[in-house]
TrEMBL record:
InterPro entries: CheB-like (IPR008248), Sig_transdc_resp-reg_Me-estase (IPR000673), Sig_transdc_resp-reg_receiver (IPR001789). Residues 152-345 form the CheB-type methylesterase domain. It comes from Sphingomicrobium clamense. GO terms for biological process: methylation. Residues 1-119 form the Response regulatory domain. The keyword Transferase applies. This is Chemotaxis-specific protein-glutamate methyltransferase CheB. Keywords: Chemotaxis, Hydrolase, Methyltransferase, Phosphoprotein, Transferase.
Length: 345
C-alpha cells in the first residue's frame, strides 16, 4: 500500500514497484486517515506500507502506531523527504516501529538508481513473494536457549550491541526494559547515516535513562554509559592500563558495512575475553557474524534476536545458524537476560 499525498509520487512509485514481478500495489491513499480506513475495511492482504511523513491531517508520523496496528503485521517503509532533512522525525518513526526509511528524491529525480534501491529495500522486508496469505507458513521462533552455547558467569566488562533494519525499534524495546545498572559500558553500532546519530543517541538516552553520546576517538568508556558508533566510522575498543577507550576506525570493513558490527565485537572480545557480551539484533545481511566468531572463541557470549520479533531476520539468523548464540529472544527478554547476568543470577 502506498500512502502519500502527492498524486505524482504515488503514480511514479507505483510504476517502479510494478516493474518487479515480486510486488503488487494493492492500495493507495492520499492521507493517513484514508489509509487507516482502507486497512481496517479491506480484506486485501498488505505486506508493506510505504508511508510519507508529511501529509495533511494526522500525517505519517502521528498515525504510525495506528497504521501498524491496522496493517496486522505489515512492515512500514518510510519514504519521505524528512528522512533526509528531518533526522529527528525519521529516527522517531523508526523507534515507533517503522522497519526502514528511504529519502524521497526531489521532483524530477524519480528514476534510475532510486528505483533499484527501493526494490532492494522492499525485498529485504519481505524476503519471499507471498501471493496469498493462505499459502504463507507462519514464522516459527528460534529456540529460546540453544543447547550448544552457555552464558559465562563472569561479570560483564562491556556490552556491545549491533543492529540494522528495524534495529531502532528493537533497541527502544531493549533499553526500555533494561533495568540497570549493569556495571559496564554499552556500545551500539546501528547502520544509519552520520547525520542521524546525535538524534539517535538522544533517543537511546530517553529510552534507557542512561547517558548516551556519539562516540569520539580516545573517549573513556564509562560503566552504564551508552556509546553510539558514528555513521562514518567503526566503533572499536582499545584496552589501556587505566581502562577501556574508544578507537574509531575508517574505511569499509570486509562486511561491506560502515559502521560495522564485526570490528566492535572483535576488539571487545580481544580486550575482555569472557567478560565481553554481544547482542545482535534485527537487520539484513551478515554483519556481526565474524565478530561473533571471535567473541565466542575468546570465551565471550552472543545473544541473538529471535526470528519472530525481527523486522529482518538476517544478521541474527547468520549468528544463530552458525551455532554462536547462547540464546535467541525478543529484545525485551534479551534485556532481562543481560540484567540477570549482571546481577549474578
Amino acid at each position: 500500500m502506498l500512502v502519500d499525498d502527492s498524486m505524482v509520487a504515488r503514480a511514479v512509485l507505483s510504476r517502479m514497484i510494478e516493474m518487479s514481478p515480486d510486488f503488487e500495489v494493492v492500495g493507495v491513499a492520499g492521507t493517513a486517515e484514508d489509509a487507516l480506513v482502507a486497512l481496517r475495511e479491506t480484506n486485501v492482504p498488505v505486506d508493506i506500507v510505504i508511508l510519507d511523513l508529511e501529509m495533511p491531517g494526522m500525517g505519517g508520523l502521528k498515525s504510525l502506531p495506528e497504521i501498524l496496528e491496522a496493517a496486522s503485521g505489515a512492515q512500514v517503509l518510510v519514504v519521505s523527504s524528512l528522512a533526509e532533512e528531518g533526522a529527528e522525525a525519521t529516527v522517531k518513526a523508526l523507534a515507533m516501529g517503522a522497519a526502514d526509511t528511504l529519502p524521497k528524491p526531489g521532483t524530477g529525480r524519480f528514476n534510475g538508481k532510486f528505483s533499484d534501491i527501493l526494490l532492494e529495500r522492499l525485498r529485504a522486508l519481505v524476503p519471499a513473494p507471498t501471493a496469498s496469505r493462505e499459502n504463507v507458513v507462519p514464522r516459527k521462533s528460534t529456540p529460546a536457549i540453544p543447547a550448544n552455547r552457555e552464558m559465562p558467569d563472569s561479570d560483564i566488562g562491556v556490552l556491545a550491541i549491533g543492529s540494522s533494519t528495524g534495529g531502532i525499534h528493537a533497541l527502544a524495546s531493549f533499553f526500555e526494559t533494561l533495568e540497570g545498572p549493569i556495571g559496564a559500558p554499552i556500545l551500539v553500532t546501528q547502520h544509519l547515516p552520520a547525520a542521524f546519530m546525535t538524534v539517535f543517541a538522544r533517543q537511546l538516552s530517553m529510552a534507557s535513562g542512561l547517558p548516551a553520546c556519539v562516540a569520539e576517538d580516545n573517549m573513556l568508556l564509562k560503566p552504564d554509559h551508552i556509546f553510539v558508533a558514528p555513521g562514518d566510522r567503526h566503533l572499536t575498543v582499545k584496552g589501556r592500563k587505566n581502562g577501556l577507550y574508544v578507537r574509531l576506525l575508517e574505511g569499509r570493513h570486509a562486511s561491506g558495512c560502515l559502521p560495522s558490527v564485526d570490528p566492535m565485537f572483535e576488539t571487545a572480545a580481544e580486550a575482555l575475553g569472557d567478560k565481553a557480551l554481544g547482542v545482535i539484533l534485527t537487520g539484513m545481511g551478515r554483519d556481526g557474524l565474524e565478530g561473533s566468531r571471535t567473541m565466542v572463541a575468546k570465551g565471550g557470549a552472543v545473544i541473538a534476536q529471535d526470528e519472530a520479533s525481527c523486522a529482518v531476520w538476517g544478521m541474527p539468523r547468520a549468528v544463530a545458524e552458525a551455532g554462536l548464540a547462547c540464546a535467541a529472544l525478543p529484545p525485551a527478554d534479551i534485556a532481562r537476560l543481560v540484567v540477570e547476568r549482571a546481577r549474578g543470577k
